[in-house]
Structure to design on (155 residues):
């Protein structure tokens, strides 16, 4: 299920335009670039990448705030953390009425197979996002690549 941005009306998955249906995990996309596009240098018995790209899920983290979701699912999607917001033991935001229940990702097509983006630390409860677990839409990647060509069609 997704929301139509302009009207806010709920739509079913079958109504999502075809060009927005396909995603790739950011970490997998960087792996593809490193292996298939940038390539390796062969030195007799060893090979090394021409360009090293850091794409570890655990070391590439970003700030995350509770209840943050993708504002434009035509660009990217990720698994959020949804919960109540409390200040001085008073709930100022009650998440029980939201239609997303992150404890049951399997009820939303596609979410059950996604790697977790938003994480709550077991040590100190800090929230963070694992950048490599954002799912980029192929349409968005295509538009970005087309926009960086020079006049002679070179990247």
């Amino acid at each position: 299920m997704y929301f139509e941005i302009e009207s806010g009306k709920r739509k079913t998955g079958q109504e999502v335009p075809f060009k927005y249906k396909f995603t790739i995990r950011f970490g997998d996309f960087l792996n593809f670039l490193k292996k298939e596009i940038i390539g390796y240098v062969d030195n007799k018995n060893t090979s090394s990448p021409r360009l090293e790209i850091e794409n570890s899920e655990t070391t590439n983290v970003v700030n995350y705030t509770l209840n943050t979701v993708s504002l434009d699912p035509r660009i990217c999607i990720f698994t959020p953390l949804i919960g109540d917001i409390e200040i001085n033991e008073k709930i100022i935001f009650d998440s029980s009425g939201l239609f997303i229940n992150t404890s049951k990702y399997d009820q939303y097509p596609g979410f059950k197979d996604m790697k977790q983006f938003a994480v709550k630390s077991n040590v100190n409860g800090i929230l963070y996002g694992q950048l490599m677990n954002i799912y980029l839409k192929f349409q968005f990647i295509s538009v970005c690549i087309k926009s960086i060509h020079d006049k002679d069609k070179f990247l």
About this structure: The longest strand covers residues 40-43.
